[in-house]
Amino acid sequence: MLKGFKDFLMKGDVLDLAVAVVIGAAFTAIVTAFTTNIVNPIIASIGSAEMGFGFQITDKAETFVNIGAVLTAAINFVIIAAVVYFVLIMPYNHAKQRFGKPVAETSTDNELLGEIRDLLAESPALRRQ
Questions:
Q1: Which residues, 6+ apart, have CB-to-CB distance to 55 below 8 Å?
Q2: Domain containing residue 30: CATH number
């Protein structure tokens, strides 16, 4: 029973699910607060005082292209991805490498045929006399 549970946990599907939950719930609020309160003012200071970091296409307010919001979203993504990688993926890969089954080395067809030839040559029953 526990072996089956361990096998289930070591599958990649569980890790994918954990990554999705973490990205969707835990870090989004923290990273959004960080970028809204720290990064947005820095990006807005680059632009003009009236508009921030963006530009107006026409006189209508709806045509404002907010480059700062796009940069903030990109920074959000990079921060979330980095946290997920360093908190989940790296420890998982380390544990899998340390406690997982060793992966057998793969050989090419020519290497395998050469090994078979050598074994057959060494076999006393198949030697020609």
A1: 64, 65, 67
A2: 1.10.1200.120
Contacts of 51 (CB under 8 A, 6+ apart): 64
In a domain, 55, yes or no: yes
3-state secondary structure of 48: strand
Q: Number of structural domains, the chain?
A: 1
Mind listing the pLDDT tens digit for each residue in 37-81? 887 777 777 766 566 677 778 888 778 788 888 888 888 888 878
Q: Which domain holds residue 29?
A: 2-102
Crossing angle of helices 67-84 and 27-34, rounded to 10°: 140
Q: What is the pTM of this model?
A: 0.50
